[in-house]
Amino acid sequence: xxxxxxPRDVQVEEVLDRLYEEYPDSTIxxxxxxxxxxxxxxxxxxxxxxxxxxxxxxxxFETYRTPEEYANAPQEELAEAISSIxxxxxxxxxxxxxxxxxxxKHDGEVPDTMSELTDLAGVGRKTANVVLQHGHxxxxxxxxxTHVQRISRRLGITEEERxxxxxRDLLGIVPEEHWQQxxxxxxxxxxxxxxxxxxxxxxxxxxxxxxxxxxxxTVDLASGDTW
Length: 227
Prior knowledge:
This protein folds into two domains: 8-26 and 143-226, Helix-hairpin-Helix base-excision DNA repair enzymes (C-terminal) (Endonuclease Iii, domain 2); 35-135, Endonuclease III, domain 1. Helices cover 52% and strands 2% of the residues. The protein has eleven helices and two strands. The protein has helices at residues 8-22, 35-45, 50-63, 67-72, 75-81, 88-105, 114-118, 125-135, 146-154, 163-171, 179-192; strands spanning 219-220, 225-226. Strands 1-2 form a two-stranded antiparallel sheet. Helix 2 (35-45) crosses helix 3 (50-63), helix 5 packs across helix 6 and helix 9 packs across helix 11 (179-192). It is elongated and about 55 Å long. The protein starts with 7 loop residues before the first helix and ends with a strand. The model has no long low-confidence stretch (mean pLDDT 97).
């Protein structure tokens, strides 16, 4: 069992130092060329792999180029275009509705405020944070996806359980200049080592400071379940 550093901000600092060294090129893995493409890619990425989203979007972005084109696309046509994505029918509805609002209420431009973004269909705070950070260079929060949620709990950085409360907790202990990279580093580490099932603790750069480390610990703090 690893021993987390105390207080929590010291643990965060050490975790970040090690992950920056482990993943020096960490960045967003979705492919896009403008803000509209970014928004659509992030909506599609919910409960779906970025790899799958990138594959689908390669053709999607050739077919539809403006908010009006997405908004005016027949539901069945757009759903078919993204049919290999999870929840494709609902996501097609979200995209058509969001793009209609962008065209009608925002002069065809993807909004640059949290409130305006989260008013769009299919856009929650996580999606809005990604669009603000990578589309508008505005960093006002931490994107809490499943990797951030899982690993921050495993490392004893937070005991909160829901993304919204986890984000609020993290904002108080993660230095603001690291808010954006915090997510990318945790995603890379979650994919490479600290997976949801059977994480590779033996080859983890954080094992000695991780209270969930499988060598001695009997509990996965992310879920509360025994290993």
